[in-house]
Amino acid sequence: MYNVKKAVHLSFICIFILIPAALAQESDFSYIDEQIDKHFEQTRIEARRAFLGVLSYPRDVREAMLEVATRPELVVKLVITREQKLGESLIQRNAVLEPYPEEVQKAAKLLLFFPDVLGVMQEHLVMTGLMGAVYSDDKARIKEIVNEIAEAVEQEHEAAIDIWTERLQENPEAAEQLIAAAKAYAAQTEPNQAAEETNIDVSEDGEVEVSDLPSSDFVTYTLENADEYPYLSEEFLDYYDDFYDDDYDIWYSPAYARAAHRAYHRRDDIRDAVRDYLIERPHMLPSALSNDFDQRIEQIRAQGKLDKAFEQTRQLQPNMTRDRFIRESANSFPRVAKLANDHQVRTKDARSRIRHQHKQARARKSSPTRRTTSQRANVKRVPTTRKQHVSRAQRQHRKSWSPSRATPKSSSAPRRSTGGARRK
What we know:
Strand 1 (200-202) and strand 2 (208-210) form a beta hairpin. The protein folds into two domains: 2-145, no CATH class; 155-401, no CATH class. It is mainly α and 424 residues long. Helices cover 69% and strands 2% of the residues. It has helices at 2-52, 59-69, 72-83, 86-97, 102-111, 115-123, 125-137, 139-169, 172-187, 191-198, 216-224, 230-243, 256-263, 269-280, 293-316, 322-328, 334-346, 350-366, 386-401, and strands spanning 200-202, 208-210, 379-381. It contains 19 helices and three strands. Strands 1-2-3 form a three-stranded mixed β-sheet.
């Protein structure tokens, strides 16, 4: 009898001790499960970015990236091999590739010619491996889908280069400033890098040969020096304005990461750079600038001067903000101060901002999309080289992992303009 009572007593002890412990354990794991779910959602988004990142590459490079991604450890080995001396790397390469299937070896040998591509894949090795795992499930179907989307992306980009070339032909001042800005940009960077970022060449007779869109860094350099290149800066702003659509301007979407893949095929270096420029300077929207073209150029020139003065002031006063500097420098930069003040009035509250956006949308339908001039610049389109293609694709690849900010610093992010001034 005593043993039975003792057994019952111990059973109750186990119930009161072990069950709460088990419940607590289950509660702890439910919280961990919630955190895991959050990370899985982010992983899903980043895995999509991994596929988006390969779209802009030439077909053989793109397919090689997919193949090598099925063996992510090989990416690291290839990077190490690529960093060795030529004689050593050949011996090491053969030893590294020997255990892998022939198709993987062929893809790896191709990627060794593009160390920067391997570098991007290594920087995001986990997602590279996930992309490879997805690709391995059905190589033929996934390759078909990726190539189909990539061809559409390339067609749109080729059309954008044609439009950019036509714009320069119709704007001799912008074409001249493009040459000057390219020379100045090359002076502060490596010549080869500058050539790949400006994507122009000037022949002996002065003809400008355009092979691709300029890079975001070069566009940013031009806009930050708008006082020296106002016509070219205006052309960049106008290009962004004409190509705007609501899906591209995705910082207004709370589902930025999910919208990113829908907007990706509309992205290019010019629009990315101008978009970031307008986040910092929403008052410089083309819709806010003067309808008089000469006044419009002066406003852009004044903004360039203000930007340089602001940077000098911020070196002495690190806490100085752009909005505050514009207010305190209103006498020195009246054009910019008026633009900033008008922008604040238009976006004073959410309701008026929505009305303003609807008004812009209605006006957009009747606004001209191109401006013309009787003078023509000596500019022509030439084919994009393979090196330029890969360089551009690599920039877009990196940006697919680090897209432009989803939320602007100011409370009123830039929206599409009504068309602005069109010079005739």
